[in-house]
């Protein structure tokens, strides 16, 4: 027999009138519907749910294409995306939000795979005129002909947070944008996601934005590829999101390995854009510019012989400005096109940032790095914590890049230790073995061993 448990949660001080409003007439709230115990499929549970309910899904693989149908409910797994999969079977998007859902429509804790976009868009998640919360999912192995093989969001203020969006592609047809995510208008929050190894034939291997606002913050955007522009991110048609504290590394495109953009007013703050591959603008390629753009506290590096930042030339363009950035490659000029080299002015430098281990995607900075304490504390939207959620400012001045430097210290106490031992073959204690710190380095010791070992 199917069962649904409903409960009313009451907290804080309530007047009698408020209490009566809750219980007279009886109002059923916060049902939990279990799949497959109460309903055999996720969609059947959604159909049975009311606003405020939770659909709780047991581990397993579910061959479905789900649609929230405008309901303000939470659909979540009991065991997380590693053990709970929704497989779209190549029959359309895995999850659809197209009936004015808001942020209280939540999808959490699934692997979403084998989706094919409707109307050529949105293989893993399709969002149109809705603003759901998509959090804690793995969105992988989805495809479309046009835009947003992982997630497509049109006219949306969705919250995309804490997801892994990987190995999706738009190469089933030509002209695709947004291998991982495509944002068409709206003001989406893209926060704390890993967007990796996605592919598109035209633009925005990781993310593509078309006239979109919102915030792109604390994302790892890595290993994405495109056949044209913007290996990591493509910004088109007046898109001007906040671009704060992202790590954009190892992406590939013919132009704009890290980011390709049509410039509109925006600020780039404390991003690390490194090890991207392109023939021009390995970190940033500005196609054209018609509004002020400022780069604050960023680290941007690229290979020798390729410009790190490329800008258009001519008097008809408003060129970006640079404040307290490190723009560096190991050979040649880091700036090309119409961009004048700002090195030595407004806190800008061009020096090896001394990444910890870039060959293994570790872009923390080493002791002695020239970017330590070299940022601008007045940068807009400066976060209070860094990419690792550590306090953002140490030693009074913010560092450049996504990671704040934290010195490592080690203390050994006491500096001298004595051990009583018995000599080999003896029956009484011999002289002590003494370990003594005789130098300035607390991790180096002299060891003196005495006694009869004959």
Can you walk through the features of this model?
The protein is mainly beta and 454 residues long. A hairpin with a 4-residue loop joins β37 (355-357) and β38. The protein folds into two domains: 28-365, 3 Solenoid (Pectate Lyase C-like), CATH 2.160.20; 416-449, no CATH class. The model is unreliable at 1-27, 422-433 and 449-454 (pLDDT under 50). Strands 1-2-5-8-11-14-17-21-25-28-31-34 form a twelve-stranded parallel sheet, covered by helices on one side.
Keywords:
disordered N terminus; Pectate Lyase C-like; 3% helix; mainly beta; disordered C terminus; single chain; globular; 454 residues; 11-stranded parallel beta sheet
Number of domain units: 2
Number of strands: 41
- Major sheet characteristics: 12 strands, parallel
Give the strand line-up of the largest sheet: 1-2-5-8-11-14-17-21-25-28-31-34
Q: Proportion of β residues?
A: 25-35%
Low-confidence stretches: 1-27, 422-433, 449-454
CATH class of the largest domain: Mainly Beta
CATH architecture of the largest domain: 3 Solenoid
**Average pLDDT over all residues:** 86
């Amino acid at each position: 027999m199917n069962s649904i448990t409903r409960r009313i949660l009451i907290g804080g001080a309530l007047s009698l009138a408020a209490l009566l409003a809750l219980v007279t007439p009886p109002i059923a709230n916060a049902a939990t519907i279990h799949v497959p115990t109460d309903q055999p499929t996720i969609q059947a549970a959604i159909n049975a749910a009311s606003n405020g309910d939770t659909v709780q899904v047991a581990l397993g693989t579910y061959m479905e294409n789900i649609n929230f149908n405008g309901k303000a409910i939470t659909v979540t797994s009991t065991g997380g995306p590693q053990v709970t999969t929704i497989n779209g079977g190549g029959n359309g998007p895995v999850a659809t939000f197209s009936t004015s859902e808001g942020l209280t429509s939540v999808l959490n804790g699934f692997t979403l795979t084998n989706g094919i976009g409707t109307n050529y868009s949105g293989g893993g998640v399709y969002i149109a005129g809705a603003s759901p919360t998509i959090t804690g999912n793995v969105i992988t192995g989805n495809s479309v002909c046009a835009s947003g093989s992982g997630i497509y969001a049109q006219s949306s203020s969705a919250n995309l947070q804490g997801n892994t969006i990987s190995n999706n592609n738009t190469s089933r047809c030509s002209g695709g944008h947004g291998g991982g995510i495509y944002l068409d208008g709206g003001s989406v929050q893209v926060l704390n996601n890993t967007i990796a190894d996605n592919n598109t034939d035209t633009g925005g291997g990781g993310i593509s934005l078309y006239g979109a606002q919102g915030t792109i913050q604390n994302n790892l955007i890595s290993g994405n590829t495109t056949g044209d522009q913007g290996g990591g991110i493509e910004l088109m048609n007046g898109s001007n999101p906040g671009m704060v504290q992202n790590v954009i590394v190892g992406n590939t495109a013919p132009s704009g390995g890290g980011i390709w953009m049509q410039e509109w007013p925006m600020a780039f703050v404390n991003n690390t854009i490194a090890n991207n591959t392109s023939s021009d603008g390995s970190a940033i390629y500005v196609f054209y510019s018609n509004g002020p753009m400022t780069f604050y506290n960023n680290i941007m590096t690229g290979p020798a012989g390729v410009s790190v930042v490329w800008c258009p030339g001519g008097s008809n363009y408003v060129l970006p400005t640079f404040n307290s950035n490190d723009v560096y490659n190991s050979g040649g000029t880091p700036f090309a096109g119409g961009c004048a080299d700002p090195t030595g002015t407004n806190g800008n430098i061009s020096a090896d940032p001394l990444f910890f281990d870039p060959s293994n995607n570790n872009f923390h900075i080493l002791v002695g790095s020239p970017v330590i304490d070299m940022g601008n504390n007045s940068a807009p939207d400066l976060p209070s914590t860094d990419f690792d959620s550590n306090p953002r400012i140490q030693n009074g001045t913010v560092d450049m890049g996504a990671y704040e430097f934290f010195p490592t210290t080690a203390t050994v106490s006491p500096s001298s230790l004595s051990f009583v031992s018995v000599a080999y073959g003896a029956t009484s204690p011999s002289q002590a073995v003494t370990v003594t710190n005789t130098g300035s380095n607390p991790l180096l010791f002299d060891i003196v061993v005495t006694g009869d070992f004959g």
